[in-house]
Amino acid sequence: MTKVRKAVIPAAGLGTRFLPATKAQPKEMLPLLDKPAIQYVVEEAVGAGLTDIIIITGRGKHAIVDHFDRSFELEHFLEAKGKFDELKQVREISDMASIHYIRQRDPLGLGHAVAAAEGHVRDEPFAVLLGDDLIVESTHLLQEMLAVHGKYGRSVLGAMEVSRDDISLYGAIEPELVENEHLARVRSIVEKPAPEDAPSNLAAIGRYVLTPEIFDCLRRTQPGVGGELQLTDAINLLAQEQAVYAYVFEGGRFDVGNKIDYLKATIELAIDRDDIGKEFRSWLGDFVERKKLI
What we know:
By secondary structure, the chain is α/β, with parallel strands linked by helices. It contains 11 helices and 13 strands.
């Protein structure tokens, strides 16, 4: 069995939910404290042992490429000023992984973006990490999914239960438990169903470990919801031909494309930081008390 080495990060979306902030900068570069959102995703992949990373970009995404590239002028300035901690942080960004870029010329859906990576992935299993979904480090979701793939040799989806009203925002899974409450076989999956039509309230979220057979399924998949090539539809086809698993987890996830979740993620990250967490927690407690929010 081939070990998973590669990660695909689709980053070609327009970020319309965060206009006007995303009018002139990629949504993936919106900061969460002192890091852009996409850096957390890359660090998650690297932390799971995936150091060959393909970022799918589109028009207006040059800031992403620049962020992970060397900045010799900045490094020289920091070194001359004796700012060695900052210099170390800047160099680590460009040294953490081998990052490649593929341009998705037309915004034709997540399935289309993943298909664009076939030439680099070739016949290996690979992970897909969506930049909108921030998974907190303590959850270890990707490591658990890779372990399931290592055991069964099949595709694995990250999944969590959502409210019935919210299932229309996700791919809804028809599950069959195979080991315990954390692992299910995917009998079917449907993209953004109406709540009354959903097979369950178990939703696929933005983490996937996929076998290379997904590329053939993508070629055989017709445009679906919104006229786009849906990765969910290709996974549903794959699930009819070989076992596909869902690893079910709770909490530890924020949809940072959603403004409320973006704020929640910022607060949780700040609270847990060694350098600012104590002071921020104190201020936050005082703020809640002062505003009589509880």
